Task: inverse folding
């Protein structure tokens, strides 16, 4: 238990210390929010969709949580590179604890980052429809964070070095983001696209955030929560298994 | 304390460790001496549960590292050939994290961490991030950390690589002191003959995955009619230069080292 806690604490401490990184990681969501939010806003309004900023803000929060959690999992590769991974692998604690500590740490960091984006969205003019939705929103943020931190850990445990990183970024993380409906509504999509969006776990995450924050959802909050919980359990299992197979 | 019998480790077709056997009694300082790629690090990895043996029996503190991973892990401390500190944490945090992972209770952990950091002359810098440390300081911190959970065995895999003579000297003084005070068994690998001769009670010369000779420094010299250990070593292993083929991991490690080097200035 203590081992899980100390490894969780390590992730959180490191996040708190990397101020430049925190600011840098705000850049991309901010760009989406401002450029797309205000750029596509009028068109969206004309099409009868209402405020695009309101619609998109939960998607951008989902994006921030996705990126931060996947990368915190893949940061395993840096620990491998700089050697710290060995220290945890020869320690007399079951590897599953090490994996859980890291993953929860990464998920917490992703939630902190997501919270920052919520604040940015509020400043940009986003308004949640009810106060009760906010804790629910955090619950969905936590689910998204765990799903993708576990995915990141699985990837980080399976790669030997950073060479595969671009591949993961372009063929996994970015598609997960773009296919999630973070930027467009999931209604009336072409069949093929609609099918793919249903396979994307982030679709349910963003949908859940929308249900909580703007009171509109495509799948329904309960379906969202169940799907995310099942995927989280599956990916945690996968991550634990991949992590247990690491050889230095 | 350590017993190895007929140990073999194969990576595909390549035999890294080829049927080696040796014993290290409690309290001994035992050195593995060998050229690059001789199988030193592979042997250490098997003893420390990081790799599984292909065949043969291994016992560390009376237990099999494959079946009793956690008990074996609790019994040893290790200083790896490459750094294994978290550079974004402070020296104190690195020590503390280690103590928690090794189940050292809070009060004992803090007391021992303080004693060790003072002993290794790092106390003044305990709250500085490790990335601001020099190579010698990092090495000392790794060794201090290895002692934190009072291990019965200390594995040192080329611990003095890249250290200046002062730091090397200091390091061995500390290791010897701990060995005498707590009867810690020390298993070390090194390239430096003078170190092996000065520090180790017994030396095993390993080459191409086989132990070619084992004994005290004097015994090895006598066996080869050599005047120095270096001469004995060359007589036993030949004088061809060994090149390990660099894997992509090694290359990345070099890149990482470049970054680290740049970051320090």
Result:
């Amino acid at each position: 238990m203590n081992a899980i806690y100390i490894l969780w604490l390590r992730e959180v401490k490191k996040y708190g210390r990397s101020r430049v990184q925190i600011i840098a990681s705000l850049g991309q969501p901010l760009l989406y929010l401002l450029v797309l939010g205000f750029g596509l806003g009028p068109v969206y309004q004309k099409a009868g969709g209402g405020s695009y900023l309101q619609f998109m803000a939960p998607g951008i929060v989902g994006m921030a949580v996705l990126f931060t959690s996947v990368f915190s999992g893949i940061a395993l590769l840096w620990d491998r590179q700089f050697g710290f991974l060995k220290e945890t692998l020869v320690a007399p604690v079951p590897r599953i604890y090490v994996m859980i500590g890291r993953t929860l740490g990464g998920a917490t960091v992703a939630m902190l980052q997501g919270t920052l984006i919520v604040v940015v969205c509020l400043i940009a003019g986003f308004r949640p429809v009810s106060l009760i939705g906010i804790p629910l929103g955090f619950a969905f943020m936590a689910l998204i964070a765990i799903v993708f931190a576990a995915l990141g850990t699985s990837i980080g445990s399976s790669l030997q070095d950073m060479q595969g990183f671009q591949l993961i970024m372009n063929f996994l993380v970015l598609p997960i983001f773009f296919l999630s409906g973070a930027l467009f509504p999931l209604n009336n999509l072409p069949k093929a696209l609609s099918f793919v969006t249903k396979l994307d776990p982030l679709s349910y995450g963003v949908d859940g955030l929308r249900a909580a924050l703007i009171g509109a959802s495509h799948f329904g909050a309960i379906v969202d929560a169940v799907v995310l919980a099942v995927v989280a359990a599956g990916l945690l299992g996968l991550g634990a298994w991949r992590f247990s197979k690491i050889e230095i | 304390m350590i017993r190895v019998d007929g140990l073999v480790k194969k990576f595909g077709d390549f035999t890294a460790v080829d049927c080696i056997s040796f014993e290290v009694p409690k309290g001994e300082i035992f050195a593995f001496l060998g050229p690059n790629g001789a199988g030193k690090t592979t042997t250490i990895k098997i003893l420390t549960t990081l790799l599984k043996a292909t065949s043969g029996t291994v016992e560390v503190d009376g237990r099999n590292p494959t079946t009793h991973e956690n008990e074996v892990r609790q019994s040893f401390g290790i200083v790896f050939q490459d750094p294994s500190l978290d550079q974004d944490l402070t020296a104190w945090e690195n020590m503390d994290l280690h103590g928690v992972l090794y189940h050292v209770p809070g009060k004992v952990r803090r007391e021992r961490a303080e004693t060790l950091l003072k002993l290794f002359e790092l106390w003044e810098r305990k709250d500085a991030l490790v990335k601001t440390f020099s190579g010698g300081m990092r090495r000392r911190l790794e060794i201090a950390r290895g002692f934190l959970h009072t291990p019965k065995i200390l594995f040192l895999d080329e611990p003095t690589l890249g250290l200046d003579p002062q730091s090397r000297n200091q390091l061995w003084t500390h290791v010897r002191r701990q060995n005498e005070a707590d009867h810690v068994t020390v298993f070390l690998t090194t390239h430096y003959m003078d170190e092996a001769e000065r520090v180790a009670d017994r030396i095993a010369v390993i080459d191409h995955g086989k132990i070619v000779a084992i004994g005290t420094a004097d015994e090895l010299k006598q066996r080869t009619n050599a005047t120095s250990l270096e001469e004995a070593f060359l007589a036993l292993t030949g004088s061809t230069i060994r090149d390990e083929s660099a894997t992509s991991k090694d290359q990345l490690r070099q890149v990482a080292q470049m970054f680290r080097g740049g970051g320090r200035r």
In short: Residues 169 and 261 of chain B are 23 Å apart (CA to CA). Confidence is low (pLDDT under 50) at residues 261-265 of chain B. Chain B has one domain: 2-264.
